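User: My instructor asked us to take a sequence, write out its structure as tokens, and then describe one feature of it. I'm not sure where to start. Here is the sequence I was given:
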Amino acid sequence: MRAATAQSKAETLIEALPWLTRFHGATVVIKYGGNAMTDEVLKEGFAEDVVFLHQVGLRPVVVHGGGPQISSALDQLGIESTFTAGLRVTTPEAMQVVRMVLVGQVGRDIVGLVNRHGPFAIGMSGEDAHLFTAVRKHAVVDGEPVDIGQVGEIIKVDAGAVRALIDDGRIPVVSSVARGDDGEIYNVNADTAAAALAVELQAQKLIVLTDVEGLYANWPDDTDVIDSLTGDELEALMPTLSSGMVPKMGACLTAVQGGVPQAHVLDGRVPHSLLLEIFTNEGIGTMVMP
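Assistant: Let's start with the prediction itself. The structure tokens for your sequence are:
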């Protein structure tokens, strides 16, 4: 029995070999959020996966949001949370909480989990070294723009500091907060932030972890996951997608249109989904290619 188990482990390692060779030295941007962020076992598994990628020669960069954590902090402080067209209305008061939670709590937690394995992760905010510059974004309701406060759209990425950290053998952990040229701070969508960073870093892959198995062919009638599709096919599907999938698939589309060879949406609830996607022949989730 032991020999059989050992044999299957060896086969797994050998199956990973061509992928290890292919992605050695490759930059991979991972958007981390949702359920995988609130379950303790999955959180530890995510940290292990990221360290594994680093130790076998890939260059992982983590970009995170923190919707559930922000909502819970706003509740505790008695600050009302409202959404317009799927975007959180962010008053100056709410923005202070968003920044505090993303940079001071969620980012710290990820850094702490990764650094149990060694001095790898360094947390940074999109404000640091002008990484993300944003302008105010308006929600559109019935064709009319609506002001939703300090919610931003990234217009510029300056990834010099991230590159320096990667070259130093570190794992950057980036909070999706941006600066404005007007001195404002902005809450930016972490999916779109990850895509913008992947394009700027000329990453080999963008991986978006979500709470679903991937992109469904014909939701809700059909729960078959689309294994792979091209950017053009995805663009045609975009108007039909559920509101939760729009930013995720939009991020994949932005990435491949910006020169990233592969973008993936994976189920973050599956333990070690990152490793299954990168190092096995089957892969999981949905892959978008140019």
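For the description part of your assignment, you could build on this observation: Residues 92-114 form the longest helix (23 residues). Try explaining in your own words what that tells you about the chain.
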